[in-house]
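G., the chain you wanted modeled:
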Amino acid sequence: DDSYLPRCGADLAVDTAGGRYPLLIWSHGLTGTGCEHGVLATALALRGNVVAILHHSCGSSSGCDLVTNGSESFLSYDQPIMKKGRYPLDFRQRQAEHRSNEVSEARDLILGACAGKDLSDRIDRNKVVVGGFSFGAATAGLAASTDEEGKFCAAVLIDGWWHIALRKLKVNVDLPLQAHERGIQIPSLFIGSEEFEGYDDLRDGTLRLQAKCPDKRVAVLAGTRHGNFMDAIWWLPKWMTRGMGFSGKAIDPHDTYAEFVGMVADFVEEKTSPK
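Predicted structure as tokens:
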């Protein structure tokens, strides 16, 4: 269905008239898919960026089609055991590592012309930004913190899931461990929701991580909920997104989304423009 936004321009010719463009590799959130940030991708493309949105294959998406040795299968969302004493503490950490490897692999495949030589020739390999939302922010943070080859020049981290706190299960762990241990050394944009800032353990974990990021820009958008950074606020009427808790009740979700996208686009442009 070419009317769906993330695919509506799939057959457009690559612009070969300009120079080389920055590349943003984007990681979706937990139970999300590669289609949930199409509005963001379109807006960033209009600002002169190539955007690649992954659909992760570790059981952290809502579902994923797999092809292994020519055989097709479907991978459903994989839920850990939610019982006291049985919750696997390394479950999300292992998924984050899998996702981070997919981010790095996607970069290499795109720059290696697997997405088409016309496209790879138009990308500046020194201007690759890694980004993500929620668990995707944790994924991007992991990729950035473990990047020893200079693959990424900046990171965009939206309402990140930097700490797992399940009090009834007595689970209280930072996520991902490598980012908290090493910090993130490349320029990083943190944009958060007022909702996530209100969770004490998550807020404290976020602040611990940010303290280890020497070149950072931090913003918390007033009145926002986690869903304010998702395309879902465009799929439903405003009154419904507020009523369902996707959006803060006292803000206009479309105006807030435009503000958020503008901040991301400005940051990417700043960090990928010639000095």
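The chain has a mean pLDDT of 92.

Shout if anything looks off.
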